[in-house]
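[Discussion] Sanity-checking designs against the backbone

I'm trying to build intuition for which residues belong where. Below is a structure token string of 210 positions. I'd appreciate it if someone posts a full sequence so I can compare it with mine line by line.
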């Protein structure tokens, strides 16, 4: 059974860094990958664009290819978008299919602060995506999980629905939505840091322009 990998985020806005690492993860894991925008991210400030605007950006960015899919289920849930709730839902739908939660290195380092974080390992594998430019410190509790669960090759996921941690060496791109918001707000045009689809409709980048 091909794994199902979930790549969650604020996508405020979606950028080439997100798309490249999600694409490469799909190749490395031979997985179906779904991008899953969070309506109300529990661990950060309110996004700049509304949930509907971010979703429209993702739709435009993903048009014209079918390797990366969009899963908008968190948009329909009220309250904080806890990943553990989403993974429980997916597990109920997908039976014993391997599920992989994809996280950039920075997000992975923050995992012990997530709601019911240890439960995540019961529900999914974790795929850690290399991300340059951010200083990331892994806590001792996280290292304990890594030591017990780390696997070196995606073959280790075969036949196991959840529980492993795999580091995925994807092309390192030092791109963040924070930087893109800064550039847009100062009147610059980060043309090639963003997917072409975001330029098809001026409304998609309007929330970030001053
Ligand atoms: P912001 O700058 O607003 O915090 P971001 O660029 O980090 O945004 P998010 O939507 O918050 O983007 O991130 C969603 C997921 O994508 C996280 O797991 C994050 O680590 C990962 N990610 C984002 N950009 C990259 C990148 N350039 N390389 C690898 N992973 C990335």
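Best answer:
Here's mine. Compare freely.
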């Amino acid at each position: 059974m091909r794994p199902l990998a979930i790549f969650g985020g604020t996508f405020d806005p979606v950028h080439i860094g997100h798309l490249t690492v999600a694409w490469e993860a799909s190749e490395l894991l031979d997985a179906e990958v779904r991008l899953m925008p969070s309506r109300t991210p529990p661990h950060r400030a309110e996004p700049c664009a509304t949930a509907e605007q971010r979703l429209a950006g993702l739709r435009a960015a993903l048009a014209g290819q079918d390797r990366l899919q969009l899963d908008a289920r968190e948009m329909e849930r009220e309250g904080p978008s806890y990943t553990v709730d989403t993974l429980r839902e997916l597990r109920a739908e997908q039976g014993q299919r391997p599920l992989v939660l994809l996280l950039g290195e920075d997000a992975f380092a923050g995992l012990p602060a997530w709601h019911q974080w240890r439960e995540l390992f019961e529900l999914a594998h974790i795929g850690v995506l290399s991300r340059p430019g951010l200083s990331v410190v892994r806590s001792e509790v996280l290292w304990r999980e890594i030591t017990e669960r780390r696997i070196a090759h995606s073959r280790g996921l075969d036949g196991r629905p959840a529980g492993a941690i795999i580091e995925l060496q994807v092309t390192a791109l030092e791109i963040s939505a924070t930087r893109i918001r800064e550039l847009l707000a100062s009147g610059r045009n980060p043309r090639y840091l963003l997917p072409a689809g975001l330029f098809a409709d001026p409304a998609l980048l309007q929330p970030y322009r001053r």
